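>> received
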Amino acid sequence: MTERFAIISDIHGNHPALVKVLEDIKSRGIEQFIIAGDYCLSGAWPNDCIQTLKEIPKKWIIQGNEERYLENLIGKDQSTWTDGQMQISYWNYRNIEKENLDYLLALPHTAEFECNGVKVHMAHSLADFIGVRESADSVAVSERYAKVQTTPEMVRKDIHAMLDADADFQEKVAALEEGVYIFGHTHVQWSYKVPRKNMLLINPGSCGLPLDAITDSVPYAILTIAENGEASVEEIRVPFSMADYIEELRKTTQYVEANVWCKVIFKELLSAKEHMYYFLRYAEEYAKRIGDERRPYAVETWEKAYEEWSKS
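>> returned
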């Protein structure tokens, strides 16, 4: 029989968005889930996100790269957590219940299963499959639409053109075995049918922090695998007020304890475009300019770098 799966990735502590997406999925009668990593950092409700995901009965779920930041803090002396750059990781570590953190860190990094004769592969990043990052990432999309109002149709068409022209990407995916490949990481929603192969690539986008230049909505995808093995995908966007979400974030202890990180994320939420990459690059330039070799960055360096960058 035909099987349908809701695909979610990159929730990043945005529990209100996750709830909206789950409501939409339920309204479509979908009961199976594929969940592709990054459940913490950036939004202030990581514990709620993990608890909600734990309670989904029919799912395939893996870790993302953000989970590793938390894993690296286990057993560390918290009295040394005095820098500015890692404040967001420290806040998450302190605000996730141990049982939920243990669940999160026990998840596999990759997974695969078979449905109607089709092998479905899961990893957090496409680079895990092909060794290189695809050209249609959040930086490329943000720069392409720096001064352009977008639509999902425009972004979809342009991303397909980017991938068609990416020779390295084409060479790498052509070497993969046929099947469905699911990943996230770039916060850009796209799917791609590989030419001349029974192969479908799916990035559902970021449920909690979309960076594909499409504002006030959060994405996920629906994978359908027919009884004859034919796989297809539908890209979904659920309306979501980022301004309202930001107001709720401002009321949290995360906003107090990881203030710079939150302010950069606010820019991303409102614009649906990449900002953290540019800020981190600026912070490195600033630290070198003032002769600060400490890494992670000291609080003063971190805050003053943001103050300069936000005015540039």
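>> The beta strands are 3-8, 32-35, 59-61, 110-115, 118-123, 179-182, 190-193, 199-203, 217-225, 231-239.
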